[in-house]
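Long-time lurker, first post. I've been practising inverse folding by hand and with some scripts of my own, and I keep getting stuck on stretches where the structure tokens seem ambiguous. Below is the full token string for one chain I'm working on. Before anyone asks, I'm not after the true native sequence, just a reasonable design that respects the backbone. If someone could post their per-position residues I'd love to compare against what I wrote down in my notebook.
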């Protein structure tokens, strides 16, 4: 049913596995379309009570948006790409049924943004988080500038956004970016244990808790700023240099124009 996702349903818990292990599960447009459609299934299928999003393989949850799709984008195309990504991640965040990210490795760029759009995050002890877009001459475009700030506070969020540095699972736990860190082989079981508890609660109350907690933050203007910033980066020489350097496996030489 989905080219880029594996799905399974057990005891009301729907496990969605992003399945591009040879590309570190990077989010190309096909994955994004599949994620959009799979969330429709989560919303509509009454047998699904809650969901887990994870990545296939043992190395990566998701290593970001697919950088090869950034080459040669115009400002307008950058805007459409980010808007579509923001909308799909809003669909996850506003899901009436809880969604846990089971982060089994690298969660970088769009991968960190995907994990942050979920209601909770559980990490395996080899997980690494970061927003490395600045290395490409870019900024996050799928909600990362907003959700990182909400989850870990402005000071640390700005440090991670501006340095592009990765943090390990223990640091992510300390910063409250993740709820738990467990050995990789226990990751899905930990997520299922939490969701089994939640699935025994009143479903309407669960939905209303999610909705109310989401409304604690009114970041709509910030998301708009992110769209403008992300798309304006595509008018720069730096983004051409940054993305080409990644694909050519060399260090970028940014000129600030
Ligand atoms: N987009 C496209 N391809 C990606 C990717 C991405 N975000 N992340 C990884 N890949 C690809 C690599 O190009 C490589 O493809 P190849 O085998 O055809 O050359 C493959 O996945 C394996 O990645 P590789 O870099 O060889 O693995 P590694 O273990 O040396 O490094 C990472 C792993 C995650 C540290 C590194 O891949 C990385 O920095 N990825 C990009 C992270 C990023 O900038 N994300 C933000 C995007 S906006």
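-- Answer (accepted) --
I ran through it position by position. Result:
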């Amino acid at each position: 049913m989905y080219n880029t996702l594996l799905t399974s349903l057990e005891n009301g818990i729907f496990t969605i596995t992003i399945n591009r292990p040879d590309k570190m599960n990077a989010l190309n447009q096909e994955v994004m379309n599949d994620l959009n459609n799979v969330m429709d299934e989560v919303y509509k299928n009454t047998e699904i009570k809650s969901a887990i999003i994870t990545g296939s393989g043992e190395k990566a949850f998701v290593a970001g948006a697919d950088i090869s799709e950034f080459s040669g984008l115009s400002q307008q195309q950058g805007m459409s790409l980010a808007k579509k990504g923001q909308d799909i991640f809003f669909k996850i965040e506003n899901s009436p049924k809880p969604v846990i990210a089971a982060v089994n490795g690298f969660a970088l760029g769009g991968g960190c943004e995907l994990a942050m759009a979920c209601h909770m995050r559980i990490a395996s002890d080899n997980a690494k988080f970061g927003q490395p877009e600045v290395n490409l001459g870019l900024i996050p475009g799928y909600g990362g500038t907003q959700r990182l700030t909400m989850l870990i506070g402005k000071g640390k969020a700005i440090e991670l956004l501006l340095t592009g540095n990765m943090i390990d699972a223990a640091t992510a736990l300390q910063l409250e970016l993740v709820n738990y860190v467990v050995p990789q082989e226990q990751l899905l079981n930990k997520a299922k244990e939490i969701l089994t508890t939640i699935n025994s609660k009143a479903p309407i109350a669960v939905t209303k808790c999610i909705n109310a907690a989401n409304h604690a933050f009114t970041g709509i203007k910030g998301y708009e700023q992110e769209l403008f910033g992300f798309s304006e980066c595509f008018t720069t020489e730096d983004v051409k240099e940054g993305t080409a350097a990644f694909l050519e496996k060399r260090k970028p030489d940014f000129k600030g124009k």
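A couple of notes from the structure itself: The chain has a mean pLDDT of 96. Residues 199 and 229 are 39 Å apart (CA to CA). Happy to go over any region you disagree with.
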